[in-house]
Amino acid sequence: MWGMIATWRMALEGVTKGCEMLGQGQNAGDAVEAAIREVEDFPYYKSVGYGGLPNEEMEVELDAAYMDGDTLSIGAVAAIKDYANPVSIAKRLSQESVNNVLVGEGAEKFAHKEGFERKNMLTDRAKAFYRKRKKEVAQQELKPYAGHDTVGMVCLDRDGKVTAATSTSGLFMKKKGRVGDSPIAGSGFYADSKVGGASATGLGEDLMKGCISYEIVRLMKEGLHPQEACERAVNLLDQELKERRGKAGDLSLIAMNKEGQWGVATNIEGFSFAVAVEGQPPRVYLVKRNEDGHCAFEEASKEWMDDYMKTRMAPVKE
Ligand code: ASP
After folding, report:
1. Residue 318: inside a domain, yes or no?
2. For residue 274, is it within any domain?
3. What is the mean pLDDT of the chain?
4. CA 24 / ligand 1 centre spacing (Å)
5. How many angstroms separate the CA atoms of 81 and 123, rounded?
6. How many domains, in total, are found in the chain?
7. Of the residues 75, 213, 242, 268, which has the fewest C-beta atoms closer than 10 A?
8. Is residue 141 pLDDT above 70, yes or no?
9. Domain of 290?
10. Is residue 134 included in any domain, yes or no?
11. What CATH number should be reported for the domain holding residue 250?
C-alpha cells in the first residue's frame, strides 16, 4: 500500500506527481520532495515558495522541513530568502549528523555551497498583494495576518517508509525573522514509519502550543485511527486554548498511518485537502466541522475546483 495526504487544494498537482512516483515504486522521500516542489514552483499559490507573500518589510522569507520516518532524521530551514526550493534544502540538511536546522543567512550560505538554485521569490503579484494589504490595514484595522496557508504532506511508500514535509511563506506581513510551526518538528510535521505521520497548517503560534503533529502520531501509536487521532488532538488543543487564553487560532491537521488509513481535523470553515492511496486517484475534499466536534468531508465539486483556480489567477485589484 502507498499513499499521500496534504493540506489544501493547492497540493493537488504535487500529490498527483508524488503518487505517479510512488506507483512506479519510488520512495516516499523523493516523492514528497517532488510533490512539495511542484507547489513551491507554482507562482499563483501565494503562501508557498515562488510568489509567496512577503513579511512586513516586503521580503519573502520561507520556512520548510522534511522528516524521514525510518531514521527519524529531520532537516529544516527557516526565514530563508532567495532560494527556489526550500524543501530540497531541508531534505539535504536531514542527511547531516548535526546542524539539521538552519535559519536565515546560515541557511542561505549552506544552500549556496551545496549549489541549490537561487531565485528572487518576490513576484510583482505578491508586491501588489502587499501594497493592497498595507492600504487595507491602514484604512480598516484589518488583521494583517490573514491570507496564509502551508503545504504540509505525509507520504507512505510501498516499502512502508513514511515521510513528512512542509513549505510555507508563513504569515503574511509577519515580522522579519518570525518562524512558525512549519519547520518545527512535532508541531508542523512528524513522521515515524512504525506508526505514520501528521502535518499542520494554521496559526503557527497556536499549533506549536500543542506540539500537535507529534501528539497525533502519539495517539495513532496508542492505536487510534488517524481520523480519531486528528479530531481528538485538534479539539483538545482548541478547547485548552479557549479556556486558558480566551481564543484559539486556526488549527488544521492531516495524518496518515502506516496502513495508508488517513484522517483530518480542523477548527475552521473552509479547510480543504488532497489525498490519494493505491487504487484511488488524487482527490480534493472540503472539510466541515460539526457541532459535536467531528469532521465530515465531501469531494470538491467541479464548480468549486474551477472557481478556486479562477480566484487564484484573477488580477489583483489594488
Ligand atoms: N502555519 C503557518 C505559520 O504559522 C501558516 C499557515 O499554515 O497558514 O507559519
Report:
1. no
2. yes
3. 95
4. 32
5. 13
6. 1
7. 242
8. no
9. 3-313
10. yes
11. 3.60.20.30
